[in-house]
Design goal:
108 residues; alpha+beta; Molybdopterin biosynthesis moea protein, domain 2; three-stranded antiparallel sheet; 3 helices; 5 strands
């Protein structure tokens, strides 16, 4: 089963969803709650996230697109990224790293 990552508001997260990235909540610079990537959310987790003022979660969702649809969407993302970075000097290592990070993120 193919999956992809999706960020959801906490109110839309359901018990049983699997975290696609580590979830770390902090308050005043102090970690108050943490769950690892791959963790299956429970009702207790969702309550704790609400208590600790969590707003969004990154979850794995089934990717119902076929390969052609995924490729077409990626081409659209590439065009958008090229437009956003059109004036960026990608010989600058920091900008090049940012571009690569955004590209990798969009591929997920």
């Amino acid at each position: 089963m193919a999956t992809h990552l999706q960020f959801l508001p906490l109110e839309e997260a359901d018990e049983g969803m699997v975290l696609g990235a580590p979830l770390v909540l902090t308050e005043h610079g102090v970690m108050t709650y943490r769950l690892p990537a791959g963790h299956r959310l429970t009702e207790s987790n969702l309550r704790q996230l609400a208590v600790h003022h969590g707003e969004f979660v990154c979850v794995e969702v089934e990717d119902l697109r076929n390969e052609a649809e995924r490729q077409n969407q990626w081409l659209q993302h590439e065009k958008r990224l090229a437009h956003l970075f059109r004036r960026a000097d990608l010989s600058n290592l920091a900008l090049a790293a940012l571009y690569q990070a955004v590209t990798r993120f969009r591929r997920m």
